[in-house]
Structures are given as structure tokens and as C-alpha cells.
């Protein structure tokens, strides 16, 4: 088991910074997706009945996005562990590209937009 000193030694390694940045981006994305329903979907349309946009989390889409995020972060860690500069640099670029593609697709897959009808 990796103790606190081992984690600090690993974190202080300048070589693995792309993986740690990828972890931070992935955690921030998941936090924003989980907070999105509480932010509201926007203003209601003035009509009868009121049509109010609602944002809900699609659990299966969020799980698929989480798997994609984990895979892209692992790709970043593996790419940063390579010895050749050219291989490491191209792997990091591809890893961040995959991470951002997963984030863009994950927003559409993880959040379900719908309209709620309110009768007054």
C-alpha cells in the first residue's frame, strides 16, 4: 500500500504532471455535472401552462463518461511515463485531446434536458 510519503513523492515528480492535471480536470468536470441540476435549467416560458426547462442527470450516461474519463487519465499517466521525448509529448497531446473529447460528449450524454409543465 502506498503511504502518504509515497503519494507526496509521486506527486512531486515533475514527470507525471499531465496525469495529475488530467485528474483535476476530470474531478472538476464530474463536480460540475453533479451540480448542474441544482443550478436550474433557465427561465420559464410565459404561457399557460408554464414551460420550465429542467436538467436531470442520466446515471448510465454519467457512468459511461466516468469510464471514458478514467481511461483518458490513465492514457495521460502512461504517456508521461515514456522515456522518449517525442513519444511522451505526442502521447500527452493525444491524451488531453481524448480527455476533452470525452468531456464534450459527456456533457450531452450525462445530462438530460426536459421541459416541465406547471399549471397555476
Task: Describe, in plain words, how this protein is organized in 3D.
Helices cover 67% and strands 13% of the residues. The chain has 120 residues and is an alpha+beta fold. Strands 1-2 form a two-stranded antiparallel sheet.
Strand share of the residues? 5-15%
Series of H and E elements:
HHEHHE
Rg over CA atoms: 20 Å
Strand order in the largest sheet: 1-2
Structural class: alpha+beta
Distance between the termini: 59 Å
pLDDT below 50 for ≥5 consecutive residues: which ranges? none
**Shape call:** rod-shaped
Q: State the helicity in percent bands.
A: 55-70%
Q: How would a textbook summarize the main sheet?
A: 2 strands, antiparallel
Please provide the count of β strands.
2
Descriptive key words:
single chain; 120 residues; alpha+beta; two-stranded antiparallel ribbon; 4 helices; 67% helix
Structure, briefly:
The protein has helices spanning 4-12, 17-39, 59-80, 85-110; strands at 50-57, 111-118.
How is this fold's topology laid out?
Layout: H1 4-12, H2 17-39, E1 50-57, H3 59-80, H4 85-110, E2 111-118
Antiparallel strand pairs: 1-2
Helix pairs in contact: 2-3, 2-4, 3-4
